[in-house]
């Protein structure tokens, strides 16, 4: 299978190197930069990525990355997410199933923190994904290009672009892969576990109430 990995970045040099190291060699690596002023672009070039620029904002950047990608399978990944061992075999197994060009997959959510709060949050996210079919972008998203296009792709939103797309995919067409996406817990440590989790839940609630993402992002910070 031919796989394009698409990573949106903005001043992500500190985390991007680790993310690209865990990826290893991929068929097509596209880093979509939103105007970084640190060494993000230099790091991406070191790993042989094709770097393109787009309007800052994850929705805009993911859209641009999908257009630039060359592979039939697309893997959208955050710049601070480390894929665990075995991820490529899981991706190839999923992509090789003839039923899956009209399905999508995400990785298990794991935090790079050893606290009990991290373990509790991981369990909550697992329940949310399995029961509600609502993974966030920090779990990655593997999807065939044709299916992605049929769903309209990511919207050009500054926030909630991931929720919008997975809702269109639907819980019944979403698979949870065995391997994990290990995400930085820096935001929770910095803002507080309860405060950050409540903020995320509030943003999700505002989205379901129909509040425009351009307003939700002001609350998100």
Give the topology.
Layout lengths: L2 E7 L3 H11 L4 E6 L6 H7 L3 E4 L4 H11 L4 E4 L4 E3 L3 H10 L7 E8 L4 H17 L8 E4 H6 L10 H9 L4 E10 L2 H6 L1 H16 L4 H8 L1
Parallel strand pairs: 1-2, 1-4, 2-3, 6-8
Antiparallel strand pairs: 4-7, 5-8, 6-7
Helix pairs in contact: 1-2, 9-10
Would you kindly provide a written description of the structure presented here, covering whatever features stand out?
This protein has 221 residues and is an alpha/beta fold. It has a single domain (3-187), classed as Spore Coat Polysaccharide Biosynthesis Protein SpsA, Chain A, CATH 3.90.550. The chain has 10 helices and 8 strands. Helix 1 runs parallel beside helix 2 (40-46) and helix 9 packs antiparallel against helix 10 (213-220). The mean pLDDT is 95.
Short recap of the structure:
This protein is of the alpha/beta class. The protein has helices at 13-23, 40-46, 58-68, 87-96, 116-132, 145-150, 161-169, 186-191, 193-208, 213-220, and strands at 3-9, 28-33, 50-53, 73-76, 81-83, 104-111, 141-144, 174-183.
Order of helices and strands: EHEHEHEEHEHEHHEHHH
Structural class, from secondary structure content? Answer: alpha/beta
Q: Can you count the helices? A: 10
Distance between the termini: 39 Å
When the domains are counted, the total is 1
CATH topology: Spore Coat Polysaccharide Biosynthesis Protein SpsA, Chain A
Which CATH class is shown?
Alpha Beta
Give the neighbour order of strands across the main sheet. 3-2-1-4-7-6-8-5
Average predicted local confidence, pLDDT: 95
CA-atom Rg in angstroms: 16 Å
Low-pLDDT stretches are none
Proportion of residues in β-strands: 15-25%
Number of strands: 8
What is the makeup of the main sheet?
Answer: 8 strands, mixed
What overall geometry do the principal axes of the alpha carbons give? globular
């Amino acid at each position: 299978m031919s796989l394009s990995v698409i990573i949106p970045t903005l001043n992500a040099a500190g985390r991007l190197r680790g993310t690209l190291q865990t990826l290893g060699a991929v068929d097509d690596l596209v880093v979509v930069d939103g105007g970084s002023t640190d060494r993000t672009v230099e790091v991406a070039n070191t790993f042989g990525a094709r770097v393109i620029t787009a309007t800052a904002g994850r929705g805009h950047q993911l859209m641009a990355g999908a257009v630039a990608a060359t592979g039939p399978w697309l893997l959208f990944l955050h710049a601070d997410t480390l894929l665990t061992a075995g991820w490529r075999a899981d991706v190839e197994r999923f992509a090789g199933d003839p039923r899956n060009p009209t399905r999508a997959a995400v990785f298990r959510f794991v935090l790079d923190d050893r606290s009990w709060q991290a373990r509790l949050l991981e369990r909550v996210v697992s329940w949310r994904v399995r029961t509600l079919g609502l993974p966030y972008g920090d779990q990655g998203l593997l999807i065939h290009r044709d299916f992605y296009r049929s769903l309209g792709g990511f919207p050009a939103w500054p926030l909630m672009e991931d929720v919008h797309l997975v809702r269109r995919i639907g819980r019944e067409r979403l698979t949870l892969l065995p391997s994990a996406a290990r995400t930085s817990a820096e935001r929770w440590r910095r803002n507080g576990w309860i405060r950050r989790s409540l903020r995320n839940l509030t943003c999700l609630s505002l989205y379901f109430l129909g509040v425009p993402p351009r307003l939700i992002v002001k609350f998100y910070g």
